[in-house]
Design a protein that fits this description.
459 residues; eight-stranded mixed beta sheet; globular; four-stranded mixed beta sheet; 27% helix; 9 helices; alpha+beta
Length: 459
């Protein structure tokens, strides 16, 4: 017998493809869209159990800041009654979408940003209008072949100075042109493809929320709009399931801050053509989920709970000496708006970053979130975390279906574990995209573990 305490869900999808000419961010330099390969989407699922309602939205974009999301969430709350603290809105982290965040030399595309804000409100409203009683199941597959640690220890004698001029890195990220100097990869990857599936009590597929710790693929020109492997995954899964038009496939970004698929030790293992790697990875991940379906255990009595917490963590500000060095480097010079990413240009970009970072507050708000849906848990972190962080949380929560959605509810940038921070590499270079102190990662993951464990307690 159905009652109001049973789990119900509604889903919706809306296109958010930016027009040709729009700014594309995610690189040191801004690019402008010259073509659209495939559409971008904002995809929403709204869940309700008793009086508790929760909205999750995955957005095909690189980054969503708290400053952008706060008014959006307030509007969603006003329109739907879903409290702002019960909303999880995350970026897939494609590097081929509209610019909603100023990243390095890229600025916010104001027109697109305004359009996206309205679209996010409307897609949650639409999901709320399509609520139906449902059942939930969790699944998991091990897919190690598409996750590669992008941080490398180099051969003895090789030196790689950081662009701030403050030291020599022990680790090199994406060592293009230096392949012969590689000794080995350093750092863990998370091979798990985890997912939560929803279907109606009549057996109609409603949604699959998947999670994989792969940065993005980007096997196509920087001037092309595309949903990357996230889009190929969604289209493939819907086709493989034979799902109705209302079905929504969502791929979320896990803890992939140190992971991509540019394999510098085995570069020839993927097809070379544009979009071929994205297509292969997206479709293979969808196929692995299909393989898991016979083992799923469906729960029609799942309850729902959500908790959010705020941490205030110190920002890694440049010293007076570092600011003086940056100002001297930039004297009568500015980083050129080009695709030249040579050492001199990168040094100028990071010098500019020091001046901008110095103007930011001394502490940064870090919103963490935990969600329990039936027997499973989902954690949300507002930045780019290494696979090591996600694996630690999974190990601590062993026996419970769990995954972490990164770049959720804001973006505080890279948050490497302390030993990775000490090793150096791109993810650690002080800037607006890597601005927290070295001890931030242990504090954040411990805070999220505590939040998640509190959701497991009765009541």
């Amino acid at each position: 017998m159905m009652n109001e305490k049973m789990l119900s869900a509604g889903t919706a999808i809306t296109e958010i493809t930016p027009p040709v000419g729009s700014i594309i961010n995610g690189d040191f330099f801004p690019h402008h869209a010259q073509a659209v390969k495939d559409p971008l989407y904002a995809k929403a699922m709204v869940l309700q159990s008793g009086d508790t309602r929760f909205a999750l939205v995955m957005v095909d974009t690189c980054s969503l800041t708290y400053e952008f999301l706060h008014p959006v969430k307030q509007k969603i709350e006003t329109a739907t009654g879903v409290p702002a603290q019960h909303q999880l809105i995350a970026a897939t982290h494609i590097h081929s979408g509209g610019s909603v965040t100023g990243i390095f030399l890229s600025e916010v595309d104001t027109a697109y940003s305004n359009f996206l804000a309205d679209a996010l409100v409307n897609v949650v409203i639409a999901a709320c209008e399509r609520m139906t009683f449902c059942e939930v199941a969790y699944g998991s597959a091990v897919v190690p072949e598409h996750v590669v640690c992008r941080r490398y220890q180099m051969k003895k004698g090789f030196q790689f100075p950081d662009p701030l001029g403050e030291g020599i890195d022990a680790v090199v990220t994406n060592p293009f042109g230096r392949e012969e100097q590689i000794m080995k990869r350093t750092g863990r990857t998370d091979p798990e493809l985890a997912f939560m599936a929803l279907r109606s009590l009549e057996g109609t597929w409603l949604a699959v929320l998947a999670n994989y710790s792969l940065h993005y693929v980007g096997d196509f020109p920087r001037t092309v709009i595309s949903a990357d492997y996230f889009g190929y995954f969604a289209r493939s899964l819907k086709e493989m399931l034979g799902a109705d038009p209302g079905f929504v496939a969502l791929m979320s970004n896990g803890t992939s801050g140190n992971v991509n698929i540019w394999d510098f030790l085995n570069p020839g293992r993927y097809p070379e053509g544009a979009f071929e790697k994205s297509k292969l990875i997206g479709s293979s991940l969808a196929a692995r989920i299909i393989e898991c379906l016979p083992q799923l255990q469906w729960d029609a009595t799942a309850t729902l709970s959500v908790k959010t917490a705020l941490l205030e963590l110190p920002v890694r500000k440049p010293t007076d000496a570092a600011l003086a060095t940056a100002q001297d480097r930039l004297k009568d010079r500015e980083p050129a708006m080009s695709t030249d990413s040579g050492p001199e240009t990168v040094a100028l970009i990071y010098a500019r970053e020091q001046l901008l970072l110095a103007e930011e507050p001394d502490h940064c708000p870090v919103y963490i979130q935990g969600v329990r849906i039936g027997t499973g848990l989902i954690g949300a972190l507002p930045g780019e975390f290494f696979a090591e962080t996600g694996l630690w949380l999974k190990e601590r929560l062993h026996g419970t279906p769990y995954f972490t959605i990164s770049l959720a509810n804001g973006n505080i940038g890279y948050v490497p574990p302390p030993h990775e921070m000490a090793a150096g590499g791109y993810e650690t270079w002080r800037c607006r995209a890597s601005k927290l102190e070295a001890g931030a990662e242990p504090v954040i993951k411990a805070g999220l573990e505590q939040l998640l464990r509190s959701l497991q307690q009765p009541g």
